[in-house]
Amino acid sequence: MISEREKAIIRYLLENGPTTVAKIGLHMSLSQKTVSQSLKRIDEFLQETAIRLVRKPRVGVFLDGDSAEILKYLDGNEESNLPTSKKDRIQFLCFEILKQKTYFTRQQLQDALYISKSTLENDMGQVSEIFRHFNVTIEVLPGKGSFLNLSEQEKRRLAFDLIYYFWGGNWKITQEQQRYLHSIQGIPQFVNDFIDLTKIS
Description:
- By secondary structure, this protein is α+β, with helices and mostly antiparallel strands.
- The chain is built from nine helices and six strands; from the N terminus they run H-H-H-E-E-H-H-H-H-E-E-H-E-E-H.
- It has two domains: 4-76, Winged helix-like DNA-binding domain superfamily/Winged helix DNA-binding domain (Arc Repressor Mutant, subunit A, Orthogonal Bundle), CATH 1.10.10; 86-199, Arc Repressor Mutant, subunit A (Orthogonal Bundle), CATH 1.10.10.
- The strands form three sheets. It has a two-stranded antiparallel ribbon. Strands 3-4 form a two-stranded antiparallel ribbon.
- The longest helix has 17 residues, at 117-133.
- It is globular.
- Residues 87-139 form the Mga helix-turn-helix domain.
C-alpha cells in the first residue's frame, strides 16, 4: 500500500517527466530524505507491475511505462488519509492539536504527517494565526510540550468554528417539506473522527 503523499509524487512524475528529488521536495514541501524514502516505497510498490521508477544520473527521476497503466494501478490502490497539500496539512494540524488530551510535541506532529521540521515550523506559523483569529493561543511549557488551555466544550466550539472557517463555502441548505436541512460537503475523515457532524445545523 502506498500513501496519498506517494500517489502525489507519482502524479508529479507523470506531469513533469524527468525531475530531481530536490524539485519534488520543493513542490511538496518535503525534505529530500523524506522524498527519497517515498521513492523507495514507490519503487517497491511498482515491482510487480510493468512500470519502473528510473533514477538516472544527469537525467533525473522518472517513470518508465504506459501512463494509463500507471494511473490504473494508482487508482486501484487503497486510499490513505494522509494530507499532501499545504492547505490540507494546515487543516489536519488544527484538528490534530484539538484532539490532544494533554501536552503534545512538534516531533509528534511531524511524525504524524511524515514532514520535515522546517515544513512543520512553516505550517505551524499559519496554524497559530488561525487559532489567534479565534482568540486561542497554543501555549508552551518548556520540557513538557505545547497545549491548548481549553475545556472540552471550548474545544468542540472551536472545532465547529474551524469547520465553518475551512469549509463554510460548501455549506448547503435544502428544504424538505416543512424542514430546512443543513449540510457541509467535502469534510475530511480526520474531522469526522473528531466530531459528530450531524450536529451541524
